Amino acid sequence: MEPNATKFDLIILGASGFTGKYVLKEALKFLNTSSSPLTSIAIAGRSPTKLAQTLQWASKPNPPPSLPILHADTTDPSSLRSLCSQTHLILNCVGPFRHHGEPVVAACTDTGCDYLDICGEPEFMEKTEASYHQRAVETGSLVVSACGFDSVPAELGLLFNSVQWVGEAVVNRVEAYVGLESEKRMVGNFATYESAVLGVANASNLHKFRRSRPRRPRPQIPGPSPTKGDTIEHQKKIGLWAVVLPSADASVVRRTLSTLTENPHGLPGSDESPEMVVKREAFWSSVKPAHFGVKIGSKSLLGILRIIMVGIFIGLFGNTSFGRWLLLKFPSLFSLGWFRKNGPAEEEVESASFKMWFVGRGFSNESLASQGNTKPDMEIITRITGPEIGYVTTPIIIVQCALILLSQRKNLPKGGVYPPGIVFGHTDLQQRLQQNGISFDVISKSTISS
């Protein structure tokens, strides 16, 4: 493309993949519609034939629009740089990201192209920040990972719960509980399962990497540090049994809170209006940081034991090459039917949904929090609900993030590698998600009896 040629608004890389095709389907809803900034889309990947088939599928029941189909391969840096030179924004749907993500980020940061992805892999995200943040700042490339179910609901959910603590009330800890529901069989994407298996294999490398990094400032959170708690927890108020979920959410939230500690009024936009400066500073001043954790929940104890069993399989076999081969060769067996290589059927996607509860505990008055081992006396429960997490909620989220980036670019950081919360927290992302089927609700505010 010539230097003065018009660029695409966005290119979806990996559009023919399991999640990529649903991202394309969601993006097409906003192409050339009233009030949408999205006027041009291209799709890219290794196989033009598969991309053409995907476009036909994503467009039904309407005829497919005439979208450019571009060749790109994550093993070919020149193809990625060519891709970035033709667009303002890349939506990267090619995973696992620890294998395929870095070349795309490198091309974007070299060319100044903006980048969003649906990654849920802490190792990739943290190494990307360490390696490419400064380059992204220099070139004006805004790089934001985890713009899907990992980890926007966790980020916005924490912020939504946090701002309910008004006046003298302060939050100490927010625990998120993820509940998945379906009228049919619950089936996940093989790439998600593969990422979990590889995450176990690389866990020691991630810990070593984190120890090698400079320690970032941590927010000052009123009150004592929370205790570890029971391995299996029964949350009667929300009707769930729960166990710790080793997802990316907690690490992504910690990065946002660290960035907020360094920038108490949030990150300034590249060319903000005075009104936007006031709005941004007012929002972030209302946020009260908290300790944060995530658990996976089930309505039955048997469901939790099944989750634990899958975790044991991945933990035991994920540490050896032969064990990983077995896990990846027979995903349905070792996940007890939750994951399979061909992914869920369309009717299984349509029947699934999620509820994510945020149980915040804190103090009705900040002075109570400073009294040593005082237990929290206040609880606020909020909730996010929405459709199936991988193929419906994730596309909704990344497309809405893209629309904000395209329409409100001057209100976002000029460049850098950041988690989604600190970039989109003060925008209208929550309102946009609510308009597209993802609800935010305050469930209860109550006093905790001692």
UniProtKB/TrEMBL annotation:
> Which Gene Ontology terms describe the biological processes this protein takes part in?
glycolipid biosynthetic process
Q: Which InterPro entries match?
A: NAD(P)-bd_dom_sf, Saccharopine_DH-like_oxidrdct, Sacchrp_dh_NADP-bd
Where does the record place the region Disordered? 208-230
Per UniProt, the ranges with Basic residues bias are: 208-218
* Gene3D superfamilies registered for this protein in UniProt: NAD(P)-binding Rossmann-like Domain
Source organism's superkingdom? Answer: Eukaryota
The residue ranges of the Saccharopine dehydrogenase NADP binding domain are: 11-144
The family database entries (Pfam families) matched by this protein are listed as: Sacchrp_dh_NADP (PF03435)
Alphabetical GO CC annotations of the entry are: lipid droplet; membrane
Q: Which family does it belong to?
A: Belongs to the saccharopine dehydrogenase family.
Q: Which PANTHER family match?
A: SACCHAROPINE DEHYDROGENASE-LIKE OXIDOREDUCTASE
Q: What is this protein called?
A: Saccharopine dehydrogenase-like protein
